[in-house]
Specification:
Elements (H helix, E strand, L loop, with lengths): L8 H4 L11 H13 L6 E3 L9 E6 L2 E23 L2 E18 L5 E7 H14 L5
Antiparallel strand pairs: 1-2, 2-3, 3-4, 4-5
Length: 136
């Protein structure tokens, strides 16, 4: 189900709680909402649809991927980026990393570790910031 986008900075600035298999309907709604906004959005965190759970969905070279409880465990290649957000007006400068390693649970509850670089890494960092209550 496509859900409305949350714009309240007080809600968005609160850290999200861990996700579990009980939250799979949130994951489905998050993907549906991302697909609906795909022309102007490449990633979303669950708090953007009003749910404070550590769930993200993102575009990885045209394929939508999801993560529960993502955590960056390694990063390299710091650079300054300018990003926008569907939940906030305008763009802002922020620090990002060219390469990241992320530990997360997949939709089946299995632990995964994967490396990302470039644009996909930047999207994931933005969405994990959302999970941590960090607004750019």
């Amino acid at each position: 189900m496509v859900r409305p986008i949350m714009h309240d900075p007080l809600f968005l600035s609160q850290p999200s709680q861990s996700a579990s298999a009980a939250d799979l309907s949130v994951l489905t709604d998050l993907v549906d909402t991302l697909m609906y906004h795909r022309k102007g959005c490449v990633g979303m965190a669950a708090n953007m649809i009003g749910v404070r759970k550590r769930i993200i969905a993102f575009d990885d070279a045209g394929m939508i991927k999801t993560m529960l409880n993502p955590e960056i465990i390694a990063k390299s290649g710091e650079y300054e980026a300018e990003e926008g957000c569907l939940s906030l007006m305008g763009t802002r400068k922020t620090k990002r990393y060219e390469k990241i390693t992320v530990r997360f649970d997949n939709a089946f509850g299995q632990k995964q570790t994967q490396q990302f670089s470039g644009w996909t890494a930047q999207i994931i960092q933005h969405e994990i910031d959302h999970c941590n209550g960090i607004l750019i």
